[in-house]
Every structure is written in structure tokens, then in C-alpha cells.
Amino acid sequence: MNIESIKKLALENHVPIIMDDTLNKIEELLKESKPKRLLEIGTAVGYSAICFEKYVELKIDTIEQDEDRILEAEKNIKELNLNNKINLIKGNAVEILQNMVIEKEEDKYDFVFIDASKSKYPIFLEEALRLTTKNAIIVADNVLYKGYVLGDYNKHKQRTAVRHLREFLQMIKENEKLKSEILEVGDGLAVIRKEK
Prior knowledge:
Elements: H1 3-12, H2 20-33, E1 37-41, H3 47-52, E2 59-64, H4 67-79, E3 86-90, H5 93-99, E4 109-114, H6 121-130, E5 132-141, H7 156-174, E6 178-183, E7 189-194
Parallel strand pairs: 1-2, 1-4, 2-3, 4-5
Antiparallel strand pairs: 5-7, 6-7
Helix pairs in contact: 5-6
């Protein structure tokens, strides 16, 4: 089992994993920022956490609630001997994040990757801001959501996700303590930097 076979299997089984151009951009950010602790919201099969691992000094905490994906991620992490570096937290990300308490600044996360339920992005952002260091980077994937977010899309099926993603983009734009940019890689990548 290696990273390529994990990717191949995920694509064959239609598991949404990070796109190559998105991964390249995040790896650039990780090389530049050299994070000690990374929080990932949305593990899927563990592909992105495994890709990020070599750039993170101490450890990655990653959250997933889908039972089948948890089993697959656990297997992948174990087979690559990364149990001591990648900590899989099982359960509902909103509940887990809202119950997390990190007292010391040095124990906070300095990098967060958000790639889970689109309708929860505003909540994920609020919690990420609370749980990160003063100069952290928060990256959110799929923020343009097939182009629907910037268009006048209003079909019922995706309406909730689109509305919440628009709210998320508004939040990062209006918060003067954040410096953010939306990159046209993958399905839209928000790179948010907390200003010291």
C-alpha cells in the first residue's frame, strides 16, 4: 500500500479526495509555513492527511464521521506506519470542534484544512479561528462549488450548501483580522491568513 494506490482506489470508488492542483498549492503553503500542528476537518480515506504529513512537524488531527471512510482511513494510516503522526478523531466535526479546548497558545493549531460538509463552513471557520495560533493559515477547499457560489444558482438540491458557502466567503471578506484570497485551483480554494 502506498499513496498512489490509496489515490487510485479512492478515485475508482468515487470518494471525493483533494485534486492534484489543490494539493500542489497546499503543499507550497505547508513548505512555506512549516506547521507544528495541523487540523483537518474531513478525513475521507486519509489521503490528504497522508500527503500533508511530511510537512508537519508534530502531528495532524483529522476528523471524520462516516463509518466506512473511518475504517478505510485507519487501515491506510496504519499500513503506512503513520499512527504516531496522524490522529483520527471519529464523530461529528461541529460537535467535536465546539467541545475542543486548547488553553496554551503553543498547543493551538497553526494550519487548518477544511474539506467537509459545505453547509457547515461558517461554523468550521469560527471554530478554526478560535483553535489556531495568531499567525495561522486556514485553507478551505471547494469554496466555489462547481461555479454555483458566484453565479445565480438556486436549484433546491444544492441551495443550502451554496447559501452557506456564500456566507463563509462574506465572513472572510469582512473580517479585518484576516487576509484572504480565493484561488481558482480545483473547485475553488480559500487561503486565509490570520494577521499577527
